[in-house]
Write a structure and sequence with these properties.
The protein is of the alpha/beta class and 803 residues long. The relative contact order is 0.10.
Length: 803
């Protein structure tokens, strides 16, 4: 007996497929369905045609089914077919259905026997079918033929696994009876995804083609490779019957007669054949739908909630909605910019820096680096200080460093800050524009709105950039207006002069303070060609050298009293740069050497050592000529004054650099960043609002997307309405009346103490009167019979009559 309550569930799924057929592709809502799996020539097509009662599937050699065919059988008074890709076109001629399947297959895959995962949806209405939804997949093949791809077996298996791996899919494993069941490709794939056999139905075909003396009795009685849902045997039309256009109704009658007359199958004829397969499939599918319907409903509700907000934003049919959308977009744009700068974004970027982090890097890394670049060359700076002192003294010989020389050098270095400060502002401006552009994604849907917004915001940024540069220029002019030598961090004359009464020199460092460390080569000491390297340490009082930089083995300490510096010119082939140190009183400098010849690896290193020696009071012994042709006479008093001014300039410029490192980030944040944020938050919308009618025109892609979202939203609501109406009115379906095999377990016992196991279906009475043994229904020595429930035994359903 059929169950109207359960059968009504399958039209529910069919109506859901109609409602969601255009929108479920990306949602992965796998509707309950039966997937037909089998090898080539296993009889899959014949089984499907017997279920429908018509010839409609393409036939031929090789791979004929090259695209999944979603076949939905619906009970109706009239017979016709309808494809989803050409709705409204009813096919009453099933030969034309076959031609349409072939044409639609070749439309995507061509004629080279390739396969595609895009399904063909076909509805068959007929009074001779029960409500079923099946999926026919390409037959499993081992070897590519002709121009098929070399990996055709892999492609087919991958396509099959895409369908059968889902838990709410019933697998119809079709296997011919004249092959070894243990080698069945269909059962092997089913076992991979359903090892317990809880959702696999076995269909045994070609029973009439088995060798004489053999039968599939053990398989059909579910005693060999048992499945929980069991096996059903069918007899399809032979190729001779197909060529002779034998009517399917006659084939079904012949199938019924075969089972009734065959000695091995007549005791189970009532649960064999295509009509019984139809009934079992319908019951299993109905139960499966009943089990998965709550989860399916939750999925639909979850996706509907995800679409609600976006669908609401896309309702732009009236001016009020357009105005609201414009306001929401600008507010969202302002919030996104604020989050990017403040670092409060919902999605934290773990790949690179952006927004506020990039600005912070410019503030605290790039700005100090740019300020360091403007520091003058040491030798050039000392020369400028020397000229300033001598020009200020004029014909007089100055005993003390003049203040005007200090101010002249300081003001010149302060004026050099204009370039790094402007470059700093340019970097902030560039990064601010980049950050703003990251927030334009939401406005992409409205090209005109984005273009106008970008124009207004960019104009505001450049306007604030000019204001910021003007303000920074004023800050520099303020620093030039007054040199504050009374600053608490400034080291003045009284703090820097240290008079050494022994040699009457003024030092900028303490006696024990290290001025410089580094490697130098002694080229005139030892027997080694090219000299030997030592680790040198220069202080205000001495020059010491060690064996290595660990400074454990001191080789010698040379006092700096009466020492002079002299350049040494080597040949053009020399790769080193030399200078020497000697005593003005002609005393030995080291052991029996009158001078110490030292070498460096580069000119920069040589100049750096010279400057360090100047700071320690070791000066050149002769006239030097600068790049402008001016002669420089070495004067110890002048050099000491230069050294004093040099340290005063360093002290004051460190204050200036510290001030600008602190003030510049604050200035650009106030004048540029915060002003732009405030403009977007409070003024941008008022400037865009008068142009709202033209700015809110969507792009073609956005219009299509909006239609798609609204259509999906409407389809999900309709699908939920269908479930709401049906789920409350259909009673719970009874258990399926079919053989089931429970997984055996040594721990599982029934109420009477015997291990639990589902019983095999009771044979008909005429079989009991013959030599039937209870042992013939045992699956194996390790499996047991589950006790039969109390109450009257359920009678086997009558064999459906086929008209």
């Amino acid at each position: 007996m059929s169950n109207p309550g359960m059968e009504a569930l399958i039209p529910l799924v069919n109506s859901l497929q109609d409602a969601l057929s255009d929108v479920c592709y990306n949602y992965e809502l796998h509707l309950p369905q039966i997937v037909v799996v089998g090898a080539q020539s296993s009889g899959k097509s014949s089984v499907l045609e017997n279920l429908v009662g018509r010839d409609f599937l393409p036939r031929g050699t090789g791979i004929v089914t090259r695209r999944p065919l979603i076949l939905r059988l619906l009970h109706a008074d009239t017979v016709y077919g309808e494809f989803h890709h050409c709705k409204g076109n009813k096919f009453t001629d099933f030969n034309k259905i076959r031609e349409e399947i072939k044409a639609e297959t070749e439309r995507l895959t061509g004629r080279n026997k390739d396969i595609s995962s895009v399904p063909i949806n076909l509805l068959i209405y007929s009074p001779h079918v029960v409500n079923l939804t099946l999926v026919d997949l390409p037959g499993i093949t081992k070897v590519s033929v002709g121009d098929q791809p070399a990996d055709i077996e892999y492609q087919i298996r991958k396509l099959i696994m895409q369908y059968i791996c889902h838990e709410n899919c019933l697998i119809l494993a079709v296997t011919p009876a004249n092959t070894d069941l243990t080698n069945s490709d269909a059962l092997k794939l089913a076992k991979d995804v359903d090892p317990q056999g809880l959702r696999t139905i076995g269909v045994i075909t070609k029973l009439d083609l088995m060798d004489k003396g053999t039968d599939a009795k053990e398989i059909l009685e579910n005693r060999f490779l048992p499945l929980r849902l069991g096996y059903i045997g069918v007899v399809n039309r032979s190729q001779k019957d197909i060529d002779g256009q034998k009517d399917i109704r006659a084939a079904l009658q012949a199938e019924n007669n075969f089972f009734l007359s065959h000695p091995a199958y007549k005791h189970m004829a009532h649960r064999m054949g295509t009509p019984y397969l139809q009934k079992i499939l319908n019951q299993h599918l109905s139960n499966h739908i009943r089990d998965t319907l709550p989860g399916f409903r939750r999925d639909l509700e979850s996706q509907l909630r995800a679409l609600n907000k976006e669908a609401e934003e896309f309702r732009l049919d009236d001016p009020t909605s357009r105005n609201k959308t414009l306001t929401l977009l600008i507010h969202h744009f302002a919030d996104e910019l604020k989050k990017l700068i403040d670092g409060t974004c919902d999605n934290v970027d773990t790949v690179c820096l952006s927004g506020g982090a990039r600005l912070n890097q410019i503030f605290h890394l790039r700005l100090p680096n740019e300020l360091t670049k403007v520091q003058p060359d040491e030798i050039k700076l000392r020369r400028e200080i020397s000229y300033a002192i001598r020009n200020i003294h004029g014909v007089r010989t100055g005993l003390f460093p003049p203040d005007m020389a200090f101010e002249a050098i300081v003001k010149k270095q302060i004026s050099w800050l204009k370039e790094p400060c402007n470059k700093f502002i340019d970097m902030v401006n560039e990064e601010l524009i980049t950050t703003v552009n990251q927030c334009f994604d939401k406005l992409t849907c409205f090209p005109k709105l984005r273009e106008e917004t970008e124009k207004l915001v960019t104009t505001k940024i450049y306007e604030q950039e000019r204001k910021c540069k003007d303000l920074v220029l004023q800050l520099i002019e303020i620093q030039l207006a007054y040199i504050n030598t009374n600053h608490e961090d400034f080291v003045g004359f009284s703090k820097t002069q240290h008079v050494n009464t022994q040699n009457n020199k003024i030092c900028g460092v303490s006696e024990n303070q290290v001025i410089r460390k580094g490697w130098l080569t002694m080229s005139n000491i030892g027997l080694m060609k090219g000299g030997k390297e030592y680790w040198f340490i220069l202080t205000a009082e001495s020059l010491s050298w060690f064996k290595d930089e660990e400074e454990k083995e001191k080789q010698y300490m040379l006092p700096l009293d009466n020492l002079k510096l002299k350049d040494i010119v080597k040949g053009f082939k020399s790769s080193r740069f030399y200078f020497s140190i000697y005593n003005t009183e002609l005393r030995n400098v080291y052991k029996d050497q009158k001078w110490l010849e030292l070498a460096c690896c580069s000119q920069e290193e040589l100049d750096s050592w010279k400057v360090s020696l100047f700071r320690a009071g070791v000066f050149p012994d002769k006239v030097e000529v600068d790049g402008l042709g001016n002669e420089e006479f070495t004067d110890p008093l002048l050099e000491r004054q230069v050294e004093t001014i040099r340290h005063l300039v360093d002290s004051y410029m460190s204050i200036i650099h510290k001030t600008f490192r602190d003030q510049m980030p604050k200035t650009v944040m106030h004048v540029m960043v915060n002003s732009v944020k405030e403009f977007i938050r409070s003024e941008l919308l008022s400037q865009l609002y008068p142009l709202r009618e033209t700015l809110m025109d969507e792009s073609p892609d956005q219009q299509q997307h909006r239609v798609e979202v609204l259509r999906k939203h409407r389809a999900l609501k309709e699908a939920l309405a269908v479930i709401e109406q049906v789920s409350l009115s259909i009673p719970l379906p009874p258990p399926v009346d079919s053989p089931r095999i429970q997984p055996s377990s040594s721990q599982e016992t029934s109420k009477n103490g015997r291990p639990g196991h589902p019983p095999l279906p009771s044979p008909p009475e005429h079989h009991k009167r013959h030599n039937a043994s209870p042992d013939s229904f045992m699956h194996s020595s390790t499996q047991h019979i589950r006790p039969r429930p109390s109450g009257p035994r359920r009678q086997a359903p009558p064999i459906p009559s086929v008209k």
